[in-house]
């Protein structure tokens, strides 16, 4: 023992201290909006930097490309406000997809990256992941980073965007009316310059940004489900009522801009039917309810993985606190009566036993579901407001906003 090298001990201690720090660093590396071929392309074009996504600048640029260029190509007709002639400025789909949605998808990147990074970091700050599971957590994050950077995934997104462009091209050739993108005549349809730009640039950009955002959320969802399988240091009586995971239930709100953009695009399609007076208030309400259910399910999928460990935590906690409660109450009986009311023959220790009543009650209230309507009100509002605005153009606005209120407060 006396011959041991103190320096070796110190080095061993430093190495031990460095391991958790390295794993914490691995968690900090998860930047949801970095990486991948499209990110690298934007970096080379100086549209962003590794330490600055410059979302506002890129949103303006992409909107200018997707919405502004067709507007300029269609001048002077683009200045018309005649809806009956299919004018560019009166087309709700153009505004929703090429202006609002594309801007929202780009602006969402900063919000999503910051929100997910904070939520993931909480697992280490608490800490909620047991030390023995930290290597597995680091591996899960490394795999998620590889999936985030997948060139194949972005190629598939681009291919699907090209398919959408092809479908748009075919649709333009089969339409029987003229509008800003097509000139219809007896000889056939002629796609305008603005129409060609929307086919080749605007629509593919919209679809690509949407699919890329969905893919990256699926990567995050898979990471959360992997973490849910690890050994977690949850607290049955935690004041958040979710074992210490309450912070995670708020993560969907980081996608508020993203959901708003997609909702605007879908609401614009619904609005076209409203303008044609082919939708009733009942049908419109069902569409709003169905879309909200889809949005909530989208975010409930990764969070549902934590229901099993939370249910196990609640069951075990109630059993353990129940045992402690029995010991405490029997000790209280003996102090008051000098004996227990039931089964007093067996001698029991008179050690002081802490009252677990409050902890037992808190554990009874533990929720095994992380997703809840009140936890995602901002993202639910982002999903429904575009529909409410679209509906108010043709339906009684009091009824529309009454449906909106009911869905948000349900």
TrEMBL record:
Keyword entries, A-Z:
Membrane, Transmembrane, Transmembrane helix
Query: Does the record's keyword annotation contain Membrane?
Result: yes
Q: State the superkingdom.
A: Bacteria
Record's keyword annotation contains Transmembrane: yes
Segments passing through the bilayer: 59-75, 87-108, 152-174, 194-215, 254-275, 281-303, 375-397
Report the protein name in the record: Transmembrane protein
Q: Which organism is it from?
A: Ensifer adhaerens (Sinorhizobium morelense)
